[in-house]
Amino acid sequence: MSALLTIEHLTKVFPGQVALDDVDLEIDAGTTHALVGQNGSGKSTLIKILAGYHQPTGDEATATYYGNNSDGEPLELGNGRAAERDGLRFVHQDLGLVDALTVGENLALGNGFITRYGRIDWRRNRERAQEALDSLGFESVDVRLPVGALAPAQKTGVALARALLGWEHHAHLLVLDEPTASLPASDVEHMFAAIRRVKERGVAILYVSHHLDEVFEIADHVSILRDGRRVTTERVEDLDHDRLIELMVGHKIVQGRSGERPIGSEVLLRANGLRGGNVRGVDLVVHAGEVLGIAGITGSGREDLIPLLTGQTPSTDGTVMVHGHATANYSPSDVIKAGGAFVAADRKGLGLFPLMSVIANTTICDVGRNARFGRLDHRRERAEATSWIERLAVKTSSGDAPIATLSGGNQQKVLFSRGLRLDPRVLMLDEPTQGVDVGAKEEIHGIIDEAAKEHDAVIVASTDTDELIRVATRVLIMRAGRIAAELVGDDINSVSIERAQLASAHDTTSEFEPT
Q1: What is the pLDDT of residues 234-266, one digit of tens each?
Q2: What is the pTM of this model?
Q3: Domain termination site, one of 423, 439, 472
Q4: Which of 226, 254, 282 finishes a domain?
Q5: Are 468 and 492 in contact (CB under 8 A)?
Q6: Cβ 161 vs Cβ 185: under 8 Å
Q7: Is residue 473 part of a domain?
Q8: Which residues of 104-136 are buried (b: 16+ CB within 10 A; e: fewer)?
């Protein structure tokens, strides 16, 4: 394969942080090149420089692009117009779609509307949008619908089609930043099929993902970034899962189950007849020292259970007791007062205050403990927040930095510190490691282990089967809004979990009874 893009000596320095340090990268035409690394390794910074959002630091960085000229021509890094002119396109993790606009209108954004006699030709625009989606295998998408009405995989398909519109006649590079981050597992293969179609056109793909299984399935080469430097670039076929993890984190991670631990008799959470969303009647008892896993496919009720238990969404029936206290319906503050804490699945939408500092995001759930004489003691607040930043190894240039400047994994650690500082008896976690790298994931799993060792209770709802195997002492499987199966001991394995999740949705019979 011949090179499509080469980058040399790329450096980017932010105040107090070296994000990229003399990085070289070569991407071959017609290949899928994965870019992996822990949160904060520099992946997002590199992509933003290619897209023109950031500019390199210093004058040493060079890039040569071979898409339009076999001899190569300079690509001006940090210039979005140059990237677009030379055929680089991007699908970012947040997709950049406008939910209120139709699919056809979203595809026209950045590509322009087709006009006739000075007016928008709506029929031709719809046809163009449908043709673009059909070519990627998304024939079922109705281009007249607003994007907000689409399923996650369909939204990703719209973003992909928009990026590729008009690329048929010249070489190009497509950059995909966590394209499956918001997709349920059942939709990932559909997205891979679309990516393979793109590759068949001769498109080179730079693929960024935290999911290492995806790297082995879709990529030809992989470059590993660590602490802002490129560690190595390897052919995927020359690596295995453990070796890739070792290159990412700089040492071996020994993974395995947390093992059996003594479960106390004290009941720390009890739910009876809980209903709401896709949950159709759940009884639940959780004891001290227990890590309870909740599994189930999308729509099973798994995604609604933690929001109902924590008062983030209203229930239509049932009761919840935390540490012996009945909690009011639709009242997160009541759950916190009773001794609960939680981390929401939607980190950006429900967890973060992006423009506020790391310190403020850490302490915002209970600022009163740092108040004196009715006023906030900022010195005490800073000292407490700093202790949590150090304890959870949050990588930040400063406690005063806006939390939006942190990587996803470090943002997630701040949300954990926000909950743990409340000294909860029941910690409820919804997709706790979604969008974080393998190193940060293991650190978060360690936090879960420590919470259970302190004889608190932890509930983990997750679509990551390996995560449930790693941390849970008991796993409940949800189907059709109810708890349909219970797994303990050696039965907590990938085969048993997958089989129980995929059993008939109408088969909710089981021997499970809350005790």
Answers
A1: 999 999 988 998 999 888 766 666 656 678 899
A2: 0.74
A3: 423
A4: 254
A5: yes
A6: no
A7: yes
A8: bbbbbeebebeeeeeeeeeeebbebbbebbebb
